[in-house]
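One record is kept unedited as follows:
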Amino acid sequence: MSWGWKERHIESVIKQMESEFTIGQLLNLCPDISPKTISKVLSQLRITGLIECVGRGRHSYWRKLI
């Protein structure tokens, strides 16, 4: 997959985070990147098995699997 700087930046921020994180935390750490782009990157990382979503709705969070 060919990612641009925004996608690479989100991925590097995720790598530096704790094992569990929320979309809200990513939005705070990447204020110049749209929520849609962050969601797209999270979906791609989930598909590749690097992260998983735990729960649904407001109280959901993401967990790193690597």
